[in-house]
Specification:
alpha/beta; six-stranded parallel β-sheet; 17 helices; binds adenosine-5'-diphosphate
Length: about 500
């Protein structure tokens, strides 16, 4: 099958969070299974160009219709660790992708609407006719809308669309401008409840809703979150739309690329290890402590890695730092936040704990350091308010770093409490789970984890091994996505 991934992120060249990892891992798995896979991305100025091989021009002159005129683009091709990628570079005064960042600009909606339009124009004009176009999140949600309403009648009538929602919080709610810019036009047509009109703001259109309505199949990234999206408020207003389209909606758990995230092969850690050589993990703890100026000694090291967003339960993260320090544990945080208030909060924590030899707060994005933390820490916390899938707990499991998580979304599908997962056999229990989003709940889990580490090291080690023995590779999800592609292809 010929599959094109349309995505704003791809690890490790353009990665903000889990979406980038997912596109990379899924593409690789689909290729291993004999499919032809290409990814189309914006050509951001701030990408990690050191991870792109053989970058060369694929098409000099791609003219993309925009606001009744056209923008001149260059299409580049290159390999990202073996994955085939096209990068779209517009030449216009808007400088859509030369902003020194991926997201966070006032005109994000226009930037990604343009990207989506340019991607379809490229496929059309280059004569590329994938069997399936797989779109992701609000940024590329207009692809099925434009495909059905515009491109179908000019030569792209065989293409089918799978649309994956990685995060319902950002939906691309906007005005009619984007209809005008892309050439979709006809606001009166798209402003209908059955199409793109936002379910609550009647004066707005909702790109994610358009993606759901127009795609041949819609997925989110774990079965539990698919349920939450339909039956709780976690789809942020799209529950009724999902209900109307329930026959084409489901949850598929994300995988982890075990070539990129594997303690046996990891190039960024000083001591490789596996489940049979687990004691070699501890050299990484030493190395992490050396690197971050944390004192060595007999104490557990707890980590947090992730975006510092309200979604991630930042109050609980902050509380966990102090709780760990009060209870003879060490703490390492690696995170960044575009939100000034949250950023400020963690700068204050960092300043406050600056001289503390048991703690390090690293505010920023650092892929290489994240590998060392996964390998060096004993436990990793994920106290999210909501979590569609979550990759940090899955990577933690693979690295023998015991997850302590709140029971939501994909966390509930993948982490099973050592003491309370009564429906699981002992060897399937792999972490600590709490339910309420309050201090007491996370404290109780942290306490159980820290106590186990000190008092029953053998039991703690079993928990590490149970995690390392889990298979959260792309093997199963890859097969599920292929089933969906096959199903929609023949519709
Ligand atoms: P989300 O997609 O909501 O950001 P996930 O848990 O699905 O969360 O994925 C997070 C991914 O981003 C993981 O691979 C994690 O290691 C990585 N990551 C998040 N923040 C940072 C950071 N500050 N530095 C390095 N890697 C990070």
């Amino acid at each position: 099958m010929y599959i094109v991934q349309l995505s704003p992120e791809l690890a490790p060249v353009a990665k903000v969070g889990g979406l980038g990892d997912v596109i990379f891992g899924l593409s690789r798995e689909l290729e291993i299974r004999g499919n032809h896979v290409e990814t189309i991305l914006p050509k951001y100025d701030c990408m990690r160009y050191d991870h792109i091989y053989g970058l060369q021009i694929e098409m000099h002159d791609l003219w993309v219709p925009w606001y009744g005129g056209a923008i001149h683009c260059t299409v580049w091709f290159g390999f990202v660790h073996g994955r085939k990628c096209f990068f779209l570079e517009p030449h216009s005064a808007d400088n859509y992708f030369n902003r020194g960042c991926y997201y966070g600009c006032d005109d994000d909606i226009m930037r990604f609407a343009f990207f989506t339009k340019a991607a379809l124009e490229f496929l059309l004009k280059a004569g590329r006719r994938p069997d399936v176009i797989h779109c992701h999140d609000w940024q590329t949600a207009l692809a099925p809308v434009m495909l059905y309403e515009m491109y179908q009648c000019i030569g792209m009538d065989q293409q089918r669309v799978c649309y994956t929602i990685h995060n319902f919080k950002h939906q691309g709610v906007t005005g009619s401008e984007v209809l005008h810019a892309t050439g979709l036009g006809r606001p009166e047509y798209y402003y209908s409840y059955e199409r793109l009109r936002d379910n609550f703001n009647t004066g707005a259109i909702n790109l994610m809703k358009g993606g759901i309505v127009y795609s041949n199949f819609v997925t989110t990234v774990s079965p539990q979150h698919a349920w939450e999206a339909r039956f709780t408020d976690q789809s942020c207003g799209l529950g009724h739309t999902l209900d109307l389209h329930q026959q084409k909606f489901g949850g598929i758990l994300n995988g982890v690329d075990y070539e990129m995230w594997n303690p046996e092969l990891d190039r960024y850690i000083p001591s490789n290890y596996g489940v049979k050589t687990i004691e070699q993990k501890f050299a990484n703890k030493d190395s992490l402590r050396d690197r971050l100026w944390i004192r060595k000694g007999y104490s557990p090291l707890i980590a947090y890695i992730g975006r510092l967003d309200a979604q991630k339960g930042v109050d609980l993260v902050r509380h966990a730092i102090y709780y760990a320090l009060w209870n003879n544990a060490q703490f390492v945080l690696l995170g960044s936040s575009p939100d000034p208030a949250i950023n400020q909060m963690f700068w204050e924590v960092k300043t406050h704990l600056n001289d503390n030899q048991d703690c390090h707060i690293e505010l920023g994005f650092n892929e290489e350091l994240s590998h060392l933390i996964y390998a060096g820490a004993d436990m990793i916390i994920v106290p999210s308010n909501f979590e569609p899938c979550g990759l940090t707990q899955l990577i933690g499991l693979k690295y023998g770093t015991v997850p302590i998580v709140r029971s939501v979304g994909g966390l509930a599908d993948t982490v099973f409490d050592k003491d309370f997962a009564h429906d699981k056999a002992l060897h399937e229990r792999n972490g600590f789970v709490f339910h309420e989003a309050d201090y007491h709940a996370i404290e109780y889990s942290l306490e159980r984890a820290i106590r186990l580490w000190y008092d029953y090291p053998e039991h703690f080690r079993h928990l590490m091994e149970n995690g390392m023995n889990c298979d959260f590779s792309w093997n199963h999800p890859g097969a599920h996505y292929l089933n969906i592609y096959e199903y929609i292809r023949h519709k």
